[in-house]
Amino acid sequence: MARSLKKGPFIDGHLRVKVEGMNARNEKKVIKTWSRRSTILPEMIGHTIAVHNGRKFIPVYVTEHMIGHKLGEFAPTRTFKGHAVKAALERAAGVAGAPGVPAAGAAPAGGGAPAPKG
Fold it and tell me: Cα separations (Å) of 61 from 30, 48, 53?
């Protein structure tokens, strides 16, 4: 559900203080945060914010196209490793002698000594 326009975008207070302080000092350091729910504001452009994904901090360099999005959108929490059904089918095809998979005890294709001419 969207946030009310009269309330404005949400950003955690501690993160806002850090960004404003770095802008005042004209610094560009990495800011570590666990606040995935904070909205990216125009004041954050050009800063690198390390967003925690539950395991490690993912560095996010903020550009103008990210304004209005949440920090958590740029630090995925899950690692996609493929579809299990597709992997099982490929494995079964490899055992049955799919093209490109040498059979057990067979010589490698294109290898060995050349055939004698004659």
Answer: 9, 4, 15
Structure-token match 């490698």, residue found = 108
Other CB atoms within a 10 A radius of the CB of residue 33 amount to 19
Residues 6+ apart with CB under 8 A from 108: 102
Name all contacts of 100-108 with Cβ < 8 Å and 24+ positions apart: none
What does the pLDDT look like over 56-93, one tens digit per residue? 999 999 999 999 999 999 999 998 888 888 778 888 88
- What letter represents residue 60's amino acid? V
Q: How far is Cα 34 from Cα 23, in angstroms, rounded to an integer?
A: 20
Q: Residues 33, 71: contact at Cβ < 8 Å?
A: yes
* Residue written as token pair 């559900």: 1
Amino acid letter, 26: N
